[in-house]
Amino acid sequence: MKITVVGAGNVGATCANCIAQKELANELIIVDIKDGLSEGKALDMWQTAPINYYDTRVKGVTNDYAATAGSEVVVITSGLPRKPGMSRDDLISINAGIVKSVTENVIAHSPDAIIIIVSNPLDVMTYAAFLTAKKARNKVFGMAGVLDTARYRAFLAEELNVSPKDIQALLMGGHGDTMVPLPRYTTVAGIPVTDLIEEEKLNAIIERTKFGGGELVNLMGTSAWYAPGAAAAQMVEAIVRDQKRIFPVCALLDGEYGMKDIFLGVPVVLGKNGIEKVIEVKLNKDEMELLEGSAVAVKSVMKVLDEMNIFA
Ligand code: LMR
């Protein structure tokens, strides 16, 4: 098994480190455009192998996509992170071209790879990679729901003073302020969360989740990396180990939830074929309205990408 992570910045390096520690591959390649960065991070990571006790051979290369040839899973984290005061959508003009050119290079050397997008604005960068890769929708999708759900679960665990392991939750929609955490599909060891927490507190947690990325940008002056990197690695694990995990993933919809031609976070089964099934959960009128509102927001940014005319 060979896996590539494109981008040796904070998110890419964290993701690669998680992949190595989980021993998901024999060979893990990290590519970056900046001379020496991925070589250095890969070397540093490889030197943790005797300590953290793994065999995965981690190698870094500068822009050498030939070294990534034959990768079965590729995680694309390339692009600029946002700064305080920016929305993820503000990154589209710079990151669209980057994601396009990276995807072209990836496909040229690993035509069969499953591609996971992490770059922002997430839903639309997944669309950009899909247009570039020209692959079936089960093989090009985006990471965000795993991250957003993790934030939601972490906040709930803190509030309830219970283990995050026992919080199960579903969150749908775009990876932006319109994302839709679903309390009706949130349980704590099987107990409906609404039985355990007051409505006001739950609503505050939902709001905090929606702006969870921005909270970290404001604290650190740049985007988060531990949870985004770990979330992408968890998706890689589900694919590589054919776990059939159910995760919210940014996927191209083809009639599900009454929507078509849009990339949106929905629950899917992830296994060796990538997205093996899109799950259609029953949403009530209010939940459906929120999901549709999120779809409108994502569509408007997809339109901006279309109008950039870079996919002739
Ligand atoms: C996140 O949610 O942490 C990422 O999308 C990065 C960001 O800018 O918020």
TrEMBL record:
Organism annotation: Labilibaculum antarcticum
Xref: InterPro entries: L-lactate/malate_DH (IPR001557), Lactate/malate_DH_C (IPR022383), Lactate/malate_DH_N (IPR001236), Lactate_DH/Glyco_Ohase_4_C (IPR015955), Malate_DH_type3 (IPR011275), NAD(P)-bd_dom_sf (IPR036291)
Active site per the UniProt annotation: H175
Family: Belongs to the LDH/MDH superfamily. MDH type 3 family.
Function (record text): Catalyzes the reversible oxidation of malate to oxaloacetate.
Designated gene of the protein: mdh
Protein's recorded name: Malate dehydrogenase
SUPFAM superfamilies given in the database record: LDH C-terminal domain-like, NAD(P)-binding Rossmann-fold domains
GO molecular function: L-lactate dehydrogenase (NAD+) activity; L-malate dehydrogenase (NAD+) activity
HAMAP family: Malate_dehydrog_3
Domain Lactate/malate dehydrogenase C-terminal: 147-303
Single GO BP term: lactate metabolic process
Phylogenetic placement of the source organism: Bacteria, Pseudomonadati, Bacteroidota, Bacteroidia, Marinilabiliales
Gene3D superfamilies per record: Lactate dehydrogenase/glycoside hydrolase, family 4, C-terminal, NAD(P)-binding Rossmann-like Domain
A Pfam short name: Ldh_1_C
Binding of NAD(+), residues: G7, A8, G9, N10, V11, G12, D32, N95, V118, S119, N120
